[in-house]
Amino acid sequence: MKRVDVLMEALPYIQQFHGKTVVVKLGGHAMIDSDTLDTVIQDLVLLHYVGMKVVIVHGGGPEITSKMKAMGKEPKFVGGLRITDLETLEIAQMVLVGKINDGIVSLIARFGAQGVGLSGNDGNMIIAKKISPKKVVVDDEEQEIDLGHVGDIEEINPELLEGLINKGYIPVIAPIGMDRKGHSLNVNADTAAGEIAIALKAYKFINMSDIDGIMNAGRTRTYHRLTISEAKSLINEGIIVGGMIPKLDACIKCLENGVSYAHIINGNKNHNLLLELFTREGIGTMIKKE
Amino acid sequence: MKRVDVLMEALPYIQQFHGKTVVVKLGGHAMIDSDTLDTVIQDLVLLHYVGMKVVIVHGGGPEITSKMKAMGKEPKFVGGLRITDLETLEIAQMVLVGKINDGIVSLIARFGAQGVGLSGNDGNMIIAKKISPKKVVVDDEEQEIDLGHVGDIEEINPELLEGLINKGYIPVIAPIGMDRKGHSLNVNADTAAGEIAIALKAYKFINMSDIDGIMNAGRTRTYHRLTISEAKSLINEGIIVGGMIPKLDACIKCLENGVSYAHIINGNKNHNLLLELFTREGIGTMIKKE
Amino acid sequence: MKRVDVLMEALPYIQQFHGKTVVVKLGGHAMIDSDTLDTVIQDLVLLHYVGMKVVIVHGGGPEITSKMKAMGKEPKFVGGLRITDLETLEIAQMVLVGKINDGIVSLIARFGAQGVGLSGNDGNMIIAKKISPKKVVVDDEEQEIDLGHVGDIEEINPELLEGLINKGYIPVIAPIGMDRKGHSLNVNADTAAGEIAIALKAYKFINMSDIDGIMNAGRTRTYHRLTISEAKSLINEGIIVGGMIPKLDACIKCLENGVSYAHIINGNKNHNLLLELFTREGIGTMIKKE
Amino acid sequence: MKRVDVLMEALPYIQQFHGKTVVVKLGGHAMIDSDTLDTVIQDLVLLHYVGMKVVIVHGGGPEITSKMKAMGKEPKFVGGLRITDLETLEIAQMVLVGKINDGIVSLIARFGAQGVGLSGNDGNMIIAKKISPKKVVVDDEEQEIDLGHVGDIEEINPELLEGLINKGYIPVIAPIGMDRKGHSLNVNADTAAGEIAIALKAYKFINMSDIDGIMNAGRTRTYHRLTISEAKSLINEGIIVGGMIPKLDACIKCLENGVSYAHIINGNKNHNLLLELFTREGIGTMIKKE
Amino acid sequence: MKRVDVLMEALPYIQQFHGKTVVVKLGGHAMIDSDTLDTVIQDLVLLHYVGMKVVIVHGGGPEITSKMKAMGKEPKFVGGLRITDLETLEIAQMVLVGKINDGIVSLIARFGAQGVGLSGNDGNMIIAKKISPKKVVVDDEEQEIDLGHVGDIEEINPELLEGLINKGYIPVIAPIGMDRKGHSLNVNADTAAGEIAIALKAYKFINMSDIDGIMNAGRTRTYHRLTISEAKSLINEGIIVGGMIPKLDACIKCLENGVSYAHIINGNKNHNLLLELFTREGIGTMIKKE
Amino acid sequence: MKRVDVLMEALPYIQQFHGKTVVVKLGGHAMIDSDTLDTVIQDLVLLHYVGMKVVIVHGGGPEITSKMKAMGKEPKFVGGLRITDLETLEIAQMVLVGKINDGIVSLIARFGAQGVGLSGNDGNMIIAKKISPKKVVVDDEEQEIDLGHVGDIEEINPELLEGLINKGYIPVIAPIGMDRKGHSLNVNADTAAGEIAIALKAYKFINMSDIDGIMNAGRTRTYHRLTISEAKSLINEGIIVGGMIPKLDACIKCLENGVSYAHIINGNKNHNLLLELFTREGIGTMIKKE
């Protein structure tokens, strides 16, 4: 009977989210630990079956680094920035598209739904532009460094995604973009996920990472529910600082461009995703317009 | 966290039933007791939201009788059979279509889905034929009794239902049929529900009544899972007797005409419907082909 | 051969109305007299078959009153206003939805088309709000009277109607609305019909009642064709007075919200509907924008 | 009020024919006399507006002959058969497609519907094959005569017609076919109409000519209603003879290939078409399967 | 291998034009010389098969004149303007619709695609209005001359065309319009083609005539690529004069109403159409917005 | 002008193949040499633009082997068979899906069309079953060898492919299958391509490899056009031997299961694909049913 009560309590959320698009950025530990990933994918398949349109965007930085080392290729950094030469790009593509992406798709199948793995090359989905050289101080001297095959997103073509979603598939997207001449470029997964959420006019954008949510400077408090203006105040007042700020900014950009809710949750804890979506108080941070 | 476990355990059932049509006959106590009806409708709305196509057929005998008495019209019986004169038919229609049916539709709205109330007149859905007079022994004498405006179902036109289901409505059907000249006739709700399940090629036919399931003669055992052949054996061996037999026969007719599963459950116990569908052992009786 | 001439004379009207939506309010005597109703429904089925999209909204006040009395329930009025307690609402719903509405649907079937009976609960079609208490003078004292379960229409959701019309059904609508919590409310049938005509962007709104059309104060003249401005002048000049005014106002509201023509005709005279639509001079009153 | 009665009497026929396809062969006098043609087209537009899907196939022999003479081209006949050389074919095409066909289309527009004129070349609709030379006795000698650009129909491609019908156009077809190399050929209009009725699985095939219907040898009796077997008996018994036989055979071929009713009526009498379709006794000959 | 290189060079043009609508005006010599017409139609069928949506509008003045003479009807001119009496209109319709139009359709079939021949009567496509009498000086006296059944285009109804194009047919249109009462009128083919290009929001409007393109006054230079402003300058500076100006104006009207490119090419030279479309430098004149 | 002649000569082939599905297996040298691959992809994009529905299935064995070595993983063979342990599978997936597949997709974009890269995991497209251990003689002793994560294809689910093709994408498929529990398996690319051609009811199956076509034992003759029965005779008579036989068998299997034509061509020679398809004599081997 407990089962029944739970379902009944979940009903209002299920109704509210029915038919809505949810773009989920998968990152952090879940990309390396297969048990964690299993749970997350199972949760997403559940969301799919109770009526949401789920789109997954994943990262994979640590895995790329470890595979590069396994292949005897030393990652290069200049002034703290990673240099992506052609060989690095190839390894990144192999790891992101061939290993992580295709692996998520088969996990989705294992839990009973149907995924379709995509890179930004597919259907010209993510159009990007090689980023300009960055000024970096090396040995007390400012240098202009070409970061290589890395791109800023210029445009999302959502037709392919929309077609797949409407036929009941779960698209899984690797953060590879393409310039207008058809050359692949590494793009930032967080940015890609946000832009895709905007292009799809998603209801929710969910960023799953290794932190429990937006916290104050002393990490003594997690903010579970924030409006845009509250979030901005907390930043202005210096209460939210450091790495929290770009995460918040990405959420705010989504909300200011048509997405209704943005969430930041810790993907490493069992079923955090469901707890965040199906309980009133939530477990991570939810930001909404007002 | 329990909530999450429950949802995870429900997932395989949700997947299995996804997009499938379920025809539910609502009868018995639930037609009179509003708390019971609330729970049942809430369960059905949940089934709708997790992806099933729900169709409701309801009865209402006791309510008709009580309303007749309230209107000073004495129900007439000859040899145990109810006589449905024109006035009785009118009261039945008012109670079934105007009170019970429209009431269920507004309950569905209250729990967040959209219902459409129908009688068999709508879209020529239930075509029936006035039943022939019955031979009845009255005062030791056999008489032929005309039961009045009561019909046997000849044909179901499912187009209207299919159109509504595919647009996401929950059809709610009162057991009123129509003869080929456009005259209304009372039809048996169990039969109507079964025929509709067959016409819709439903996945499940669920009969909710006041009994816990199919039981043996001594009511010492409830059979939770039966195949058609097991059910027939139990009848032949005299283990299942009496009023249980027509209930079983109705289920078997469905199964032999394309329905995959038939269930008999007690609608008066809280959330029995979910327990029957979302647990392996079930709580009522499920009959399947083999 | 006369038959043929008539068809030829009807052709220009048939062409003009082809594929257009016509919302017809059925009221008055036709709701009680079955021969009158037969003729009206036959006319409407003809309109359907020559290509119009017919939507019927009906009233039923007198029938409710008579059924209340039959059930030993005395209609209550305070200061001339009817009080609708829960029991009254139940009787109204039974009469409107279970008797009149379902009866019209079977008549439509009898004349060879397919109707679908609806209340405002179906598909959340008529969203209403309980009306505020009215100030009434009783025994020389002003009192605030709660009229009970009566609603003002807030919103029409036309999707269900549009779906049914496009599949060739004739929707028949009882004047029952629903508040946002799923409670039924009695609504005014004239208002409901007008709002539905507006929501469907109907071509014609036809109000069938017991009067021959808009007449002057002395009832010496019937106005067959009026523009909005002519109608307003006649009111301002005191030529049209009394109960004619709200009827005209309802028509004007439709015309000012996208309906092309509004008609007021006497539904009790044989085939008035066809005479009004298929002859140049008409037989009731037609109001158009200019 | 007579108007109304007529409409009411027409209603059952309108219902019965609703949405059905009617292929009408227009021939004889109506092709030359513009008043007659006006009436016929008006009737067909009425059928269109009361819900039938009308397809017109027309002939035009006499008009071709008169235009040939006007152009100083003497029609050639050998042993009673017309020879169609290239020049004759060109004149036939100009008259049939450019004058008669386009003229019917503008008449349809004048009466308020939309026609689309077609030859068998359009959309590869009528695929024909040059007929083999005929043996003819000329001056007591048997000769093989090549009749020229005349074709037997091999295949009807109905896709273009179906597309136009479903969008509400009235297709008007000239009896020009095309061989598999794209050369135009004159084809028999009666045959073309019959084959098109079969290809469209039409409900009715109506042959409008200059005779009142199927008559006995002495022309003392017109048969208004016949079954296939009755028709065959009348032929076998020598009661129906001569030119009536090929007309009957064409109807029987339609009926044996899926058409439900075939009619032969005199197109020269005012509104015969409506009288045949909208009265029980009819005015020409109707043949049905049994 | 040369074949392959050519295909590869054509690829970028094929890509650019894919799915785009091209309205081609066929006129001049090609209407009389069957070899020239063969080549042009073959080119158009190729354009169709590599993915363009081709619409053909043709003229036929010389052919009408020669057929009139053959029929002993002398063309009448007053003050240089042709008078189109009813008989002339009939001949024009026969030649344009029955001979030229149907002939192009069978040519299209011969080269492997499917055409549909249309006049402006079909689907009420070209609505025109009889032109007003023109003032003409005859024998030193100004007279008002009624040019007869000649029309100015008022409106294009593109629905029929759009339906045919989307189903893969090549529409072929004769320059016959219809007034609002259903009377046919001769219309100018160049104007009809331009208006149809605008109504279809075509990508290209191509005018095939007997000149090589837009040339300067001395005919010493052909302008292959022009912008609207360049064209206007050349006219203003008196470099482009005479009959070139109306041709340019027609192109400019298209470009200012949504068409992207207008071309003027000589249809008498083999495959000029393909050379113009599939080479960078082109062979006639292409005008674009800027 | 040569350009134009070539296009005209290609037209009959373009017409014949229009709208037809072509499944192309890309293998051999083209998988390693980027210039060769460029040309092949350019050809395929041309086929796409002239109206064919192109589906690409690729291999990649040599690339996997070289990448394994680069990663310090020695390919293992027992008795001549490759052993695919988990690590080998991971490398294969990374190379096939992440490098080759995604690379082909970006090449397609570069040449102006839109590809979608897929593995058999996507949409549960290729369902396979781990192959049973093989008996192998090692050191004169027969052993049962488990080949590891290698699968035989059991079922193709073509829905995803069909959806993408109909929206104008070019699917690119890596030879990775999935067992019914969601585990990835290496599958043979030739077999995958053939099964996909059958599942899509393709018009053509084209196997591009490193040989010029089917040759006799002495490699003195290439057979350009063969029927199934001719091919079987040549095998039976010992004229075709060795590795040619499985290639022929794969083609024959396709032809016997609904594919119309099978081709074997050398993908390393410039534009062989177009020469094979667009010339009568062809350049490789074409096998058809009879």
Automatic annotation (TrEMBL), chains A, B, C, D, E, F:
Annotated localization: Cytoplasm
PANTHER family named among the record's database cross-references: N-ACETYLGLUTAMATE SYNTHASE, N-ACETYLGLUTAMATE SYNTHASE, MITOCHONDRIAL
One GO biological process term: L-arginine biosynthetic process via ornithine
Enzyme class: transferase
Taxon lineage: Archaea, Methanobacteriati, Methanobacteriota, Stenosarchaea group, Methanomicrobia
GO molecular function terms noted in the UniProt entry: acetylglutamate kinase activity; ATP binding
Catalytic reactions of this protein: N-acetyl-L-glutamate + ATP = N-acetyl-L-glutamyl 5-phosphate + ADP
Protein name: Acetylglutamate kinase
Domain Aspartate/glutamate/uridylate kinase: 20-266
Pfam families recorded: AA_kinase (PF00696)
Main subcellular localisation: cytoplasm
Record's keyword terms, sorted: Amino-acid biosynthesis, Arginine biosynthesis, ATP-binding, Cytoplasm, Kinase, Nucleotide-binding, Transferase
Function: Catalyzes the ATP-dependent phosphorylation of N-acetyl-L-glutamate.
Cellular-component GO terms for this entry: cytoplasm
Pathway(s) the chain acts in: Amino-acid biosynthesis; L-arginine biosynthesis; N(2)-acetyl-L-ornithine from L-glutamate: step 2/4
Family: Belongs to the acetylglutamate kinase family. ArgB subfamily.
HAMAP family on file: ArgB
Site (Transition state stabilizer): K25, K247
InterPro entries: AceGlu_kinase-like_sf, AcgluKinase_fam, ArgB, Asp/Glu/Uridylate_kinase, Glu/AcGlu_kinase, NAGK-C
